């Protein structure tokens, strides 16, 4: 499934992936594979770490 970024989301670009923090509190990790942007699943620890990068307490 390809995906995009909501216009009202916070975005953090990392060397190998992009994190998107949506206003709903949902955090998504996006990766580029074969010219397509895909959502990469995260486990609970990864999600909590990603939220902390955006300043959200877990």
Q: Which helices and strands, and how do they pair?
A:
Blueprint: E1 10-13, E2 18-21, E3 27-33, E4 36-40, H1 44-53
Antiparallel strand pairs: 1-2, 2-3, 3-4
Structure description:
This protein is α+β, with helices and mostly antiparallel strands and 58 residues long. It is 17% helix and 34% strand. The protein has 1 helix and 4 strands, in the order ββββα. The chain has a 4-stranded antiparallel sheet with strand order 1-2-3-4. A hairpin with a 4-residue loop joins strand 1 and strand 2 (18-21). The mean pLDDT is 88.
Compact description:
By secondary structure, the protein is of the alpha+beta class. The protein has one helix at residues 44-53; strands at residues 10-13, 18-21, 27-33, 36-40.
**Structure classification:** alpha+beta
Uncertain parts = none
Rg measurement, Å: 11 Å
**Main β-sheet, spatial strand arrangement:** 1-2-3-4
Strand residue percentage: 25-35%
Q: Based on Cα principal axes, name the global outline.
A: globular
How many DSSP E strands? 4
Separation of the first and last Cα atoms: 28 Å
H/E order of the elements? EEEEH
Counting DSSP H or I runs of 4 or more residues, the number of helices is 1
Helix fraction?
A: 10-25%
Largest sheet, in brief, is: 4 strands, antiparallel
Overall pLDDT: 88
List its salient traits.
4 strands, 58 residues, four-stranded antiparallel beta sheet, alpha+beta, single chain
């Amino acid at each position: 499934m390809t995906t995009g970024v909501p216009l009202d989301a916070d975005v953090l670009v990392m060397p190998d992936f992009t994190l998107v923090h949506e206003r709903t509190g949902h955090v998504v990790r996006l990766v580029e594979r074969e010219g397509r942007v895909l959502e990469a699943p995260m486990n609970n620890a990864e999600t909590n770490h990603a939220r902390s990068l955006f300043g959200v307490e877990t």
